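Before relying on records like the one below, remember that each one covers exactly one chain. Contacts with other chains, cofactors or solvent are not represented anywhere in the record.
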Amino acid sequence: MYLLATIILLSYLVGSIPTSIIVSKLTKGIDIRDYGSGNAGGTNVMRVLGWKQGLVVIILDSLKGVLAVIVIARLHYGAIPFTNVTPFDDFTLIQIIAGIAAVIGHVWTVFAGFRGGKGIATALGMLLMISTIDMLVAVGIFIVVVFVSRYVSLGSILGAIAVPLTLVIRENVFNVNIPNYSTLLPFIILVSLIVIFTHRKNVVRLINGNEHKLNFSKKKKSTP
């Protein structure tokens, strides 16, 4: 039990690293939460500081999820301290627990007054390690949608929808034998619904036509 608690704590602390705040302070000497949407995530960094800084933050936030799943989770050995009633093997279950702890850390970071981001990029890193092909398809859709529409929120929502849809198509249309499909699918659907829920205000702005668009030009917005 102590080992699992240590894994959860370490994953939470890694997820809590406030990358957007660090990048904004290093590059402009500001707290990104005081500008734009006030969210401590890569999208807000893109809007305020430019797409390059935003991309750096998104990559770093994704790596937090990857680190929790492929490094911290491997600290576990032996039997898990509770009955595993899921179809997942013990290690995969530990990976999922570690990944979720990292996402929670990103959203409620202990290093910045429990005011973090939406956890999208960190969840992306976690799921890339658990459902790689489906997430790569979603990332591709995200990139295309953002490039064409310049709406990061729309790319995130369509990417979230694409993950379980790709999983279903691979299993039922292309007859790919996906391990733990019956349990993985509802888990992926749950994560996707959470992503869509965290973007509910963006959906309203998209419908009303006043959602913020990315500016890919080299000229960046000035900040005080």
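The chain is about 65% helix and 0% strand.
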